[in-house]
Design a protein that fits this description.
The chain is an alpha+beta fold and 426 residues long. The protein is 31% helix and 23% strand. It has helices at residues 22-31, 48-59, 85-88, 96-105, 124-132, 165-175, 191-202, 235-248, 263-272, 313-316, 335-342, 372-384, 395-400, 404-410; strands spanning 2-7, 12-17, 39-42, 64-67, 70-73, 107-111, 136-140, 143-147, 157-159, 181-185, 206-208, 214-218, 229-230, 249-255, 277-278, 282-285, 295-297, 323-326, 347-350, 353-356, 366-368, 388-392, 414-419. It has a four-stranded mixed sheet with strand order 21-22-1-23, with helices on one face. Strands 2-14-16-15 form a four-stranded mixed sheet, covered by helices on one side. Helix 1 packs parallel to helix 4 and helix 5 runs parallel beside helix 6.
């Protein structure tokens, strides 16, 4: 494991470029095995999840190269094989191989995926979709076994009981080559789903309605890549750096941004008193002075993203008064609270509400990044704090943020990654 060492209290300024969306990338890489030709992705983020997904591809005789932000994947000689459990268990999104393998081979065996511990994230809606498409699903011994009869998958009408990004993506992956027409109702609307559908449609898929709550898929027999697919900018990385810039910045320009994807987040920043300058594909964050408290309630897109409720917390600590955060998606996403309290933050849970009070002075100390977005919150807090902050389990931050140390250095931060052989009790 690694630790992040931050010498805080420095004001930051400059510009940086947002990388490709992690939540698109971890779906696009499994989707690549549906292609009957090599595929290429541009603006691929340099994160540990990409490394682990490439290990999974390699186990199936699918070679890949990753140079200058371009990832090339060749699935033309793919073989069915047991997927490496250590890579599967390291990231939640490995479950997209269920839909991709089912779409490619009409069967799949996948170990239950790992990822961040942020509360229950059941796959019942995924399984419901697979069964509707004609698959038989058996769960046993920490694995999922999915198979079809000789006729393969067939189109179906599927109504999701809850809006689920993961289930929506997995059903798309399984249905894109199925016989007949599939309709997904109550589908998730996230930009990453549109990105996936764009990639597949450019290869010959017939997917309509991505970005709405009804997605229609006409199955096709083959998919052929004809051009490099450029991954959309990461809206969660964008929000994290917006919070950082408003917390400790003297003027920061974020480039490669889609402002429309950020409206629920930037609206809260503007409500707090941050004078954002929003351009066509960039956002400038000036030095922020007087900030007011806000009330945030997470929701499915286009609502406030659950992945951003922790990264905005260090900015809420600067507001005069109490801010309230309600996470309706993952109410147990509170690992950052005790860690921030170690630094002197006035933050606590009260009646399932996260109450964030004004905290003018944070003090660097030893904290632990229990998961990606908790780690991001601690990173911003460490940059704001007096003294040195050491964040253990920093691998969790590296899992989700593209070249984060290089980008922080660009802004003038004093931060480094070091080995952390012993992880103290949190």
């Amino acid at each position: 494991m690694k630790k992040m060492i931050i010498h805080g209290g420095k004001r930051l300024s400059g510009e940086l470029t947002i990388g490709g969306a992690k939540n698109s990338t971890v779906a696009l890489i499994p989707a690549a095995i549906l292609a009957d030709t090599p595929v290429r992705f541009d603006t691929v983020p340099h994160i540990l999840d990409v490394h682990n997904l490439r290990i999974i591809l390699e186990s199936m005789n699918v070679p890949s190269t990753f140079e200058n932000d371009v990832l090339t994947i060749d699935p033309t000689h793919i073989k069915e094989s047991e997927l490496p459990s250590h890579a599967i268990k390291s990231l939640r999104a490995s479950y997209y191989f269920m839909g991709a393998l089912l779409g490619r081979f009409n069967r799949a065996t996948v170990t239950f995926p790992g990822g961040d511990n942020i509360g229950p994230r059941p796959i019942d809606q995924h399984i419901k979709g697979f069964k509707a498409l004609g698959a038989n699903v058996v769960e046993e011994n920490d694995s999922v076994f999915i198979s079809t009869g000789t006729e393969g998958l067939h189109g179906a009408r599927i109504f999701l009981d809850v809006v689920s990004v993961g289930a929506t993506i997995n059903i798309i992956l399984a249905a894109v080559k199925a016989h007949g027409n599939t309709t997904i109702e109550n589908a998730a609307k996230e930009p990453e789903i549109i990105d996936l559908a764009t990639f597949l449609n450019n290869m010959g898929a017939k997917i309509r309605g991505a970005g709405t709550d009804v997605i229609r898929i006409e199955g096709v027999p083959a998919l052929h890549s004809r051009a490099t697919h450029t991954i959309i900018p990461d809206r969660i990385e964008t929000g994290t750096y917006l919070s950082l810039a408003a917390s400790v910045g003297d003027g920061v320009l974020l480039k490669n941004v889609i402002p429309e994807h950020m409206e629920s987040f930037t609206a809260k920043m503007i409500e707090m008193g941050v004078d954002l300058q929003i351009n066509e594909d960039s956002i400038f964050v000036p030095k922020s002075n007087e900030l007011g408290p806000v009330r945030i309630k997470t929701g499915t897109y286009p609502g406030f993203a659950t992945d951003l409720q922790q990264p905005i917390t260090p900015l809420l600590l600067r507001a005069t008064g109490n801010s309230i955060v309600i996470d309706t998606i993952y109410p147990q996403r509170t690992q950052h609270i005790d860690q921030l309290r170690k630094m002197g933050a006035d933050i606590h849970v009260q009646d399932n509400l996260i109450v964030v009070g004004h905290s003018a002075h944070l003090q660097g100390t030893h904290v632990e990044a229990g998961e990606i977005r908790s780690g991001a919150a601690l990173m911003i807090a460490g940059l704001s704090a007096t003294g040195t902050t050491e964040i253990s389990r920093a691998d969790n931050i590296l899992r989700g943020y593209d070249r984060v140390i290089d980008k922080l250095h660009t802004l003038g931060a004093d931060v480094e990654i070091a080995a952390d052989e012993e992880i103290p009790e949190s």
